[in-house]
Amino acid sequence: MGKGKLFIVGLGPGEARYLTPEASEALAQAEALYGYQPYLERVPVRVGQARNPSDNREELTRAGAALAHAAAGATVAMVSGGDPGVFAMAAAVIEAIEAGPAEWRALDLVIVPGITAMLAVAAKCGAPLGHDFCAISLSDNLKPWEVIEKRLRLAAQAGFAMAFYNPVSKARPHQLDTAFDILRAELPASVPVIFGRAVGRPDERMRVVPLANARGHMADMATCIIVGSPETRLVERPGLPALVYTPRRAGDD
Ligand code: SAH
């Protein structure tokens, strides 16, 4: 007991070139992999390495299975898209450890960071996160929608740029439009809104529109949205997409 090891590995936003060398090493060491099926599919198959795919929304069960496997003495890797600490498996595993048997606390736990979606999206279009920002999941699976509305309003009032994860789902088709309406009441109509879809994958798509024109149908679940602060602006370039950036200095109002 105590010799088991659990890696929680961030795969980055897309293709293998976004994987860090540390993440590659962790994946190579693992006897067994756990994770949401589409993320596991990004990891090359290795002979002798067991793969345990699971469904979305089964995070706690998946975390418990990986912890029990590691506690039995195995080296196990749990994979997440992007960074495992951002709306992903690291918190689910620690939640399971908090509620689980004492032996899970003795495990060698290594969390391997990855490039999170908002950083990949930001890098594609300039420097929209160049000053203070926050990240908000728009999913109301794990918190009431009223809390999301309140955070949107206060973050806009505080002058943060914002990155939105989980912007839409079939179960809540209208909430993103509601979110934009809330922001339009607080922010200038010209604030740039960036829709970065499947960034780092072959079907990547970037779109920048002013807040006045931002609509829910412009995003799907593979989209990370960045809404600028009142200072965020475009720098036009001849024959090239405009750069979106948030100056390093904020107004003193
Ligand atoms: N741990 C992940 C986020 C998981 S939540 C990370 O750090 O990136 C899932 C959400 O992440 C999606 O709904 C979408 O908003 C965002 N996302 C994940 N991969 C993305 C990509 N390649 N391009 C744009 N957004 C992405």
Mean pLDDT: 95
Flag low-confidence runs.
none
Strand content: 25-35%
Radius of gyration: 20 Å
> How are strands sequenced across the largest beta sheet?
3-2-4-1-5
Q: How far apart, in Å, are the first and last alpha carbons?
A: 58 Å
Tell me what the structure shows:
With 253 residues, the chain is of the alpha/beta class. It is 27% helix and 26% strand. It has 7 helices and 13 strands. Strands 3-2-4-1-5 form a 5-stranded parallel sheet, with helices on both faces. β2, α2 and β3 form a beta-alpha-beta unit. It starts with a strand and ends in an 8-residue tail after the last strand. The relative contact order is 0.15. The mean pLDDT is 95. The chain binds S-adenosyl-L-homocysteine (SAH).
Task: List its traits.
binds S-adenosyl-L-homocysteine; five-stranded mixed β-sheet; 7 helices; 253 residues; alpha/beta
Q: SSE layout and pairings?
A:
Elements: E1 5-10, H1 21-29, E2 32-36, H2 37-40, E3 50-54, H3 59-71, E4 75-80, H4 89-99, E5 108-112, H5 117-125, E6 126-127, E7 133-137, H6 145-157, E8 161-165, H7 175-184, E9 192-197, E10 205-210, E11 223-227, E12 233-237, E13 240-245
Parallel strand pairs: 1-4, 1-5, 2-3, 2-4, 6-13, 7-8
Antiparallel strand pairs: 8-11, 9-10, 9-11, 12-13
Bound molecules: S-adenosyl-L-homocysteine (SAH).
S-adenosyl-L-homocysteine is lined by residues 13-14, 80-83, 86-88, 116-117, 121, 165-167, 196-201, 221-224.
In short, what is this structure?
The chain has 253 residues and is of the alpha/beta class.
